Amino acid sequence: GVVKTARSDEKAANPATWTSKYGSVTFNQIGRDLPWGGINETGLVVEILALYEAKFPPPDERPCIGHVQWVQYQLDNCSKVEEVIASDSQVRISKPPQVKGGHYLVCDKTGNCASIEFLNGKLVFHTKKTMPVKVLANSTYAESIAFLQDEQIEKPPNAQGNVSLFRFARAAEMLKNYSSRSSQLVIEHAFDIISNVRGNGIGYVLGEPLYTQWSIVYDMKNLKVYFHTRGNEQIRYFALSSFDFSCKTPVTILDINTNLSGDVTNNFVNYTHKANRDLQKKLLFVPPEEIEKLENYPESTVCMDK
Question: Is the dihedral of CA 37, 28, 252, 231 positive or negative?
Fold first, then answer.
């Protein structure tokens, strides 16, 4: 029941406007309503991963939305993978030219998943029969699956390195080897896969070693979320059933770097403008005038149920 107008990445644009159908819990690096990933109350999960080959569509008659807020748009409006794919006819995704691109892993409660990429200005997706392995790293899905299926390339189970294709292959192999009859719980196995392929300081970004900062496992069937961070390896979790998603109730937030463990439901606090501003003060290479826009964006949304 929240009316939103997209923050456009373009100066002269027709921003998308929508009213959210579903509530969600998201992980945000740059501020409220601009998540890198999350899950909504129907069990739909959307996550963004870096993809330098991405090329988003040029302006056309469709209203546009930024490539990060696209995640929130899908969580607000969709319950199934097919709906996410179909939304390409309704909104155009965009990004500022100075920002590297990304692609998306989308899964729903039925177990269906899709990789969604924007290549040469067009949406390209793989799902069901065209997605034999439900894994995504930082290369296109087509390149990744071709690498996995090329028997001439040696892919040791524990091959070291931070190369995207090898990480894709390792995750695929570990996923294949999991048995529901195993004594290991599926949540533990999911974290083992993430640990095996996470950034371990070998790669570099802007001259700094690349380390995975957080790891998330979504239990879509039971609507639970588990996570840990680089600074706190203790697994924390919460159930979506613990939250009231009516827009009549306050938005709540949690600093995931807080030193906690176990069920963190009671550690969520009411969202404040200051909390949003404090997060954005940590952003690098963002002009002050842009930070001010990010800081004030949540105040532009309107609850229709009040």
Answer: positive
Label residue 288 by pLDDT band (50, 70, 90).
confident
Q: How much is the pLDDT for 287?
A: 77
DSSP secondary structure code for residue 299 in this structure: G
DSSP state letters, 229-277: ETTEEEEEEEEGGGS---TTSPPEE--TTSS--EE-GGG-EE--HHHHH
Beta bridge partners of 123: 118
Question: Within 13 Å of residue 62, how many CA atoms lie on the same side as its CB?
Answer: 14
Q: How far apart are CA 302 and CA 133, in angstroms?
A: 40
User: CA 32, CA 250: separation in Å to the nearest integer?
Assistant: 13
The size of the chain, in residues, is 306
User: If you search the block for the tokens 């690098």, which residue do you land on?
Assistant: 284
Q: Quick one: which of 115, 187, 122 has its CA closest to 145? A: 115
Residue 157 has pLDDT above 70, yes or no: no
Mean pLDDT, range 5-18, rounded to an integer: 80
Provide the total of helices (H) and of strands (E) in the chain, helices listed first: 7, 19
pLDDT for the residue 161: 53
